Amino acid sequence: MTDPVIRTLDASDAALFDTMPDPLGAREGHRLTRHRPDWKRVALRDGRVVARGAWWGGPDDTEPVNLNWFDVAEGEEEAGAALLRSAPWQVELELNLPAGWRDDPALRTAAETRFTAARKAGYDLLVERLMYRWTPDLGLPERPGRLEFRAEPDDAVFFDALRRIHSVTLDAHALKAIEEGGLDRAAQEELDFFHWCPSPREWWQVAYTPDGEPAGIHIPAHNPSGPCIGFIGVLPDQRGRGYAYDLLAECTHFLAAQGAEFVSAATDQGNFPMAANFTKAGYPVVRERLNFHPAREGA
C-alpha cells in the first residue's frame, strides 16, 4: 500500500473535498458554515481521497478557531492521523454526529473510525455535548416572570459574574481553562468569545430578583452561522431556585424578537440540570458533538 499524500486545497481543486462519502451527514450539518478552500486538507491514497478536514474560523480570523469537519474512510485511520499531525493548525477538533449515533451500527463504526484517527494523532477527548436547535414553530417557552432583565454596559460586571459562576461550574471547557489559568482565564475566555461574535454588545443582560439582587446573566448572540444561546449562568448564591430556565426562556424570547428563524444551543452531556432546562424550554436535540483537544506539548 502506498503512503498517503497530504494536500492543502485551494479554489482550483476544492472540489476534491466533496469526493468522499458523507455517512455522518456533515454536509447537512454545515449548510450554514462557510469553510475557506485554503483551510481544507485531504489525504489521498492512489489518487483517492481517504481522509479530509475543514478548519473553520470567523470572517476576520487569520487562523482557524477549530477543525469542525473531519472524515476518515474505514481502515484509513493512519491516513486520518497523518492529516491531523501534519496540519499547521493544532486546534480543537469538533466531531458533529447525528443524534443517537451509538444506536446505529453503521453510524457508530463511522464515528469510531474518526475517534481512532484523532487519538492516533495525539488528540484527547475533552467532552461530549448535546446540540439543540429551536425554531418558532416549536413555540416560545413560557416566561416565569420572576426576574427583571437589564442591559449592562460594564464588562467588569460580567467578568465578576463569570468568575463566580465558573467557581462551581460543570462545563468542561471552563474547567479546562481554570486548570490551565485559574478563574480569571476562564472568565476572560468567555468574554473574548462574546466580543468575537458579530452580535451587538448591547444584548448582554443581567437578571435581578424582585429584591434587586443579581441572580445571573444571559447572553443572546449571533455566531457566524446564526443566532445562538451564547451563555446562561446563575450566580452560586442564587442556585436551587430554577433560575437557569428563566434565563434560557428570556434569552430565547430576546432572539426571537430580533427575528431569529432558529436558535442554536449546546450543553455538556454531563450537565444534567441544563439539559433538563433545554428540554423544558422545548429545545430538541438535533446532533451530538465530541470535542477533542490536541495533546499539550510536554504533557
Overview of the molecule:
The protein has 299 residues and is an alpha+beta fold. 30% of the residues lie in helices and 29% in strands. It is built from seven helices and twelve strands. The chain has helices at residues 26-29, 77-85, 105-120, 155-166, 172-196, 243-257, 272-280; strands spanning 5-8, 40-45, 48-56, 66-72, 92-98, 123-134, 148-151, 205-208, 214-223, 226-234, 263-268, 285-294. It has an eight-stranded mixed β-sheet with strand order 1-2-3-4-5-12-6-11. The longest helix is centred in the middle third of the chain and has 25 residues, at 172-196. The chain starts with a strand and ends in a 5-residue tail after the last strand. Pfam families: Acetyltransf_1. Residues 163-299 form the N-acetyltransferase domain.
Short description:
This protein has helices at 26-29, 77-85, 105-120, 155-166, 172-196, 243-257, 272-280, and strands at 5-8, 40-45, 48-56, 66-72, 92-98, 123-134, 148-151, 205-208, 214-223, 226-234, 263-268, 285-294. With 299 residues, the protein is an alpha+beta fold.
Please specify the SSE layout and strand pairing.
Layout: E1 5-8, H1 26-29, E2 40-45, E3 48-56, E4 66-72, H2 77-85, E5 92-98, H3 105-120, E6 123-134, E7 148-151, H4 155-166, H5 172-196, E8 205-208, E9 214-223, E10 226-234, H6 243-257, E11 263-268, H7 272-280, E12 285-294
Parallel strand pairs: 4-5
Antiparallel strand pairs: 1-2, 2-3, 3-4, 5-12, 6-11, 6-12, 7-8, 8-9, 9-10
Helix pairs in contact: 2-3, 4-5
